[in-house]
Amino acid sequence: MTKHFGEYIKQLRNEGGFTLTQLGAKLDLDSANLSKIENGKRDFDEKRLLQLASVFNLDLDRLKTEFFSDFIAKKLYQNECSTDALIVAEEKVKYLKQINVKQEKLNFTKNND
Q: Tens of pLDDT along 77-90?
């Protein structure tokens, strides 16, 4: 995806045949705020990802990928970070997953004792 997340929502809305008001109602947003999201003037609230996935029958994991990749790209751009930050972030995600697996094993062992 090369467009920002708001443009993605607008594309989904248009393809689904919804007006701003109709989609806004399904997402508990007023049409003015939804318009700002679609135009990149306001960020979409991640708490509404499940609602968005439900409205358009989308895979939530894929939608999260679209949302968070846009979020991360904006932050890197706004802070003038190099793309090396993505490599480091990927390493940190692997580390966090590894820690979580170890903790689950520890918790699992404690529950069986």
A: 999 999 999 999 99
